[in-house]
């Protein structure tokens, strides 16, 4: 049974898949104190939040069972992603479900800003019939500058065009061709700032976008321009905006988000030119239902070991690719684990080669799993698919992935090469049609070994009697041999024996094997 803690208010209709799942115990409480949250998270397998709960390193460190954090929405700036990755916790979000609601909210703010609707409404509610004071501007023929042309930016553009606005957009991923296709003008940040009558930001809040709209960039704008932020507080520097409105450079602003929320008694709210909503972009019945359903399904997929649709701290892989790769997962992990267990020295580099059926597939998830298999020898179960790459890079281990046309006669082949400060070792494996995973090569030796159970790898001289002596000694220790494979480079030269046995080999047995004539090295492992 998986325990899923939901610590922010979520649409109950939306999380139905979770509430109705027989393997899930859902705990919903949006009023937990910090201490209560620490207690609840300590026994939870999953946490689902919106934007209120601050998922800090402290919180993650109090959650030994935690496998996944789900964000019902887009922005993950309330989640410590590094801490989640360090602890192997998958973070998933629901990026699609609230796009339309937020784009529509931005349009509502744009029109309210142009026509002073909130201010006029407020006056009228005070029984004051003011008309002169609230003369607005038309949107038609005005230029809307969009910074951040992702899902929401694009939807806003399409709606603004419906109002016959001219749209100019800047986004590092926006090409001339994509802009043409979307029917907008492509500009640099400076051009967007210089041409906009209304400027709207739709970027995430990251280091590069923090205070992107500041005193200097506001200076580039037209006098009397207006600014909207329905993305994240902090993209527009609040002090600079306040000053620009006070000195008349900026005619008004519409804000749905603030650097610190809830924004109570905020200086910007004292300005008549500023209209605001309390982070309501995604607050529609439809959006809340969408994001709650999307995140519930992804969280359950992570818990049950399925493919994840919207991972934030892992690369996203399509379900078709996942389907193609899934049969190779065990092979990749076992090959990595086998090789690292027989390799001496401090790990420096891992090269993974794919060929045959794997030539044209995105094999990154397989490499990640191979690296997990390799690192398990050193850090045990703490390494998983999420933190494998980061753990390797934190330790200065270089990971390379390459495609190779050489199949060595197999329809598919995965080859892992490990370099340490002492040696370089290689292993190759394949999936045999209908027969499962096989190790087909260890260094220069061709073998045929099922990568599972208890294994003994013996390097020896290819001399008569060597195999018999190993068999007798194992029998003395009541170790039954299930399979035995011998590979050699040339008659009478170096050779390798790989045995699968029915129980783990004790240390004294391994030592005695090492002392047998013609035997050079004995390594025991369990996959
Ligand atoms: N107000 C709300 O309730 C609400 C609801 C949903 C989303 N959001 C926020 O809206 C924002 C946009 O969401 P989205 O779903 O469109 O995200 P998205 O990922 O689809 O789009 C963001 C775009 O910003 C661009 N970008 C990144 N850095 C940039 C930079 N320095 N300059 C220009 N562009 C840059 C990216 O390339 C991307 O195309 C996010 O911050 C999200 O958290 C707010
Ligand atoms: O949870 C919310 O209502 C806000 C969501 C929104 O800011 C987002 O980034 O998806």
Topology (elements, then pairings):
Blueprint: E1 2-6, H1 16-19, E2 24-28, H2 34-41, E3 46-49, H3 57-61, E4 68-71, H4 81-86, E5 90-93, H5 99-115, H6 117-125, E6 143-147, H7 151-162, E7 166-170, H8 176-182, E8 185-186, H9 189-195, E9 198-201, H10 215-219, E10 225-229, H11 238-246, E11 250-255, E12 274-276, H12 285-303, H13 319-325, H14 329-342, E13 347-356, H15 364-379, H16 388-394, E14 398-403, E15 412-420, E16 424-432, E17 436-442, E18 445-449, E19 454-461, H17 466-476, E20 481-488, E21 494-501, H18 507-514, E22 519-526
Parallel strand pairs: 1-2, 1-3, 3-4, 4-5, 6-7, 6-9, 7-8, 9-10, 10-11, 11-12, 13-14
Antiparallel strand pairs: 13-15, 15-16, 16-17, 17-18, 19-21, 19-22, 20-21
(2R)-2-hydroxypentanedioic acid binds at residues 50-51, 73-75, 98, 279, 281-283.
Determine Rg (CA atoms, Å).
31 Å
What level of helicity do the residues show?
25-40%
**Number of domains as seen in the coordinates:** 4
Flag low-confidence runs: none
Going by CATH, what is the homologous superfamily of the largest domain?
NAD(P)-binding Rossmann-like Domain
Q: Give the overall silhouette.
A: elongated
Number of strand segments: 22
Structural class: alpha/beta
The main pleated sheet reads as: 7 strands, parallel
What is the CATH class designation of the largest domain?
Alpha Beta
Concise summary:
The protein is an alpha/beta fold and 527 residues long.
Q: How would you describe this structure to a colleague?
A:
By secondary structure, this protein is α/β, with parallel strands linked by helices. The protein is built from 18 helices and 22 strands. Helix 14 (329-342) packs parallel to helix 15 (364-379). It binds nicotinamide-adenine-dinucleotide and (2R)-2-hydroxypentanedioic acid. Nicotinamide-adenine-dinucleotide binds next to helix 5 and helix 7. It comes from Halobacillus andaensis. Pathway: Amino-acid biosynthesis; L-serine biosynthesis; L-serine from 3-phospho-D-glycerate: step 1/3. Residues 455-527 form the ACT domain. It catalyses: (R)-2-hydroxyglutarate + NAD(+) = 2-oxoglutarate + NADH + H(+); (2R)-3-phosphoglycerate + NAD(+) = 3-phosphooxypyruvate + NADH + H(+).
